[in-house]
Amino acid sequence: PQDEDVLVRGLSVLCNLANQLYYPCEHVAWAADAGIIRAGSQKWWTLSMALWASSLLLGILRSLRILFQLRRKLRQHKCSTSSPPSRREVKARVKAQVLSILADLADLSNAIHWLPPGFLWAGRFPPWLVGLLGTISSLIGIYQAPRGGNSEAV
């Protein structure tokens, strides 16, 4: 849309780019592990995890930007006599962005865990924590699915 924030749009494009690069890297890593192609899979897994983590981080930044814009709208609505449905709609979009941030943070924690040891907390999570973070992210995704997921930009 023409009224979309330039920063939100830029973050969306970069996030999309990271996702588009992630998928082929993950497929090459899988194919190398399966013996379909002769290549070292570890570098491809590392690259795909780094791209996934980048995508998640960009998504978090995008959601934070949208969240701040929505909060500004809510403050403006307090000063004006706007209709209650639009205020309710903005609050629903705030909730969607907060949930999106929480899901992305859970996935980002796991993505970093799966990077090579030595990077932040890579490889240090016990299996139960990896499972818990994945479950949290999945449950948020299931909750958001019938609602249209992550609300669009302001």
List the helices and strands and how they pair.
Blueprint: H1 6-33, H2 41-79, H3 84-113, H4 127-144
Helix pairs in contact: 1-2, 2-3, 3-4
How would you sum up this structure, described in words?
The structure is a single chain. Helix content is 75%, strand content 0%. It has 154 residues and is mainly α.
Report the uncertain regions: none
Major sheet details? none
The total count of helices amounts to 4
Q: Order of helices and strands, N to C?
A: HHHH
Strand fraction band? under 5%
Shape: elongated
Determine the fraction of residues in helical runs and give it as a percent range.
over 70%
Descriptive tags:
75% helix, elongated, 154 residues, 4 helices, mainly alpha, 0% strand
Quick overview of this protein structure:
It contains 4 helices and no strands.
